[in-house]
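Example 3.2
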Amino acid sequence: MSASANENLGAVAGFGPIPAGQNIYEASATAKAKLGTRMQIGDRVFYYGYAGGTALAAGKLANAAGWMAGTLEVDLACGTAAAIGAYAVTNITSAAAWTTLAEGYLVVSDADGEGHTYKIKSSKANADTATSTDLVLYDPIAVAITTSSKVELLTSPYYDLDICSEITDPVSGVAPIAVTANYYCWLQTWGPCALLVGATTAAGDMLIPHATDGSVGPGAAFTSNIVGYSLTAGTSGDYAGACLRIAP
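Structure, written as tokens:
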């Protein structure tokens, strides 16, 4: 069979080209795709992410550090108004140390423009001692933001990834390989996947984060976010087949 025939067969079967030449079993010190890029391979879905200061492990749940309780910045003041049609929102009061908010979100939470969400294209790095940050958005402001407005800053759910350590952690996905800290990788969010089992599960159980770092347990045991369901019976400490249902 010719190379072109193989390529066509792959496309028909759902195994299309890999963006930027980085497959799901590779990690890279440099970005080879835009953060949050979606890739579907057959019945599995992956998003392009960046591991934070902690390495990721194959088959363990990962979350974005910027989405953890207590790390989100809320009710921030806008020191400079942004008119309808503007792409920049500047002088936002922020005490956090952002390296980047690119591919994250600006949420207008109160007063003028409230209820609107904008995706962030780029941001000014914000050091520990800084008191404000500037953003550039992908889309123009739909309703004017004024100095009375309050906003929230959300990083990308695929940035600064870490292994989940609490049952209430918002899960971003599962690394298909071990990933070195501060490396880029693909993170699986949908479809068949091996998961670390923290508490015995039966086939068909709804799965949620377990107290054991990066693991899952049966949904009946905890109150938390659903990450998928088990395909086989799982023994605590082992890995078992599951079907992820995080982001399609």
